[in-house]
Amino acid sequence: MSDRILVLVRHGQSEWNLKNLFTGWRDPALTEQGVMEAKRAGVRLKAEGLVFDAAFTSALTRAQNTCALILNEMGQGALEPVKNQALNERDYGDLSGLNKDDARGKWGEAQVHLWRRSYDVPPPGGESLRDTVARTLPYYVQEILPSVLRGNRTLVTAHGNSLRALIMVLEKHTPESILKRELATGSPIIYRLNADSTVEQKLDLAA
Ligand SMILES: O=C(O)[C@@H](CO)OP(=O)(O)O
After folding, report:
1. What is the CATH code of the structural domain delimited by 5-204?
2. What is the residue range of the signal peptide feature (predicted)?
3. Residue 10 is assigned to a ligand binding site
4. What is the pTM of this model?
5. What is the pLDDT of residues 138-195, one digit of tens each?
């Protein structure tokens, strides 16, 4: 068995998730429930017998706090995560701060779904998932993957769409199949990688 372990966790519920607002690069805090979700993720990862050697997170508070809560819960509060905005949420541009139901009322369900989940339709002034892949994937390949392949059990706490960008590659999604890939807040996905960086085994703790 290899030690090439990569764990992805979407941050716990944020204030803007709760208010149903497009968030993107805006920086709301975790809610009480979000804090609980992050702690629970730490408990579950510890129960899986995991110990991390490296951690990466975005430049946004909700992902950083989720990372710290997970590591504290695992008794690994001394592990300092690497923070980089390459892991930030997709930039929602002009939609940032708008209510998602109001947006559906204004532009229609189908258009809003395309902005939220399609591969290549950018929201006005913002990033498509393809644009998000273009900034997260180089960081993954240059920084995160070498850490995993060196045998560091590696935690990444980030965001719904920046993680969908990585999952697209890890789980070999097409631009069509990625439309349906949703990520729950605070639910770890544990990947064991082969030496060629493909996925040997996946354990989705949300499933
Ligand atoms: O608002 C956002 O930034 C994201 C994640 O919460 O939302 P969505 O699920 O609509 O892409």
Report:
1. 3.40.50.1240
2. none
3. yes
4. 0.97
5. 999 999 999 999 999 999 999 999 999 999 999 999 999 999 999 999 999 999 999 9
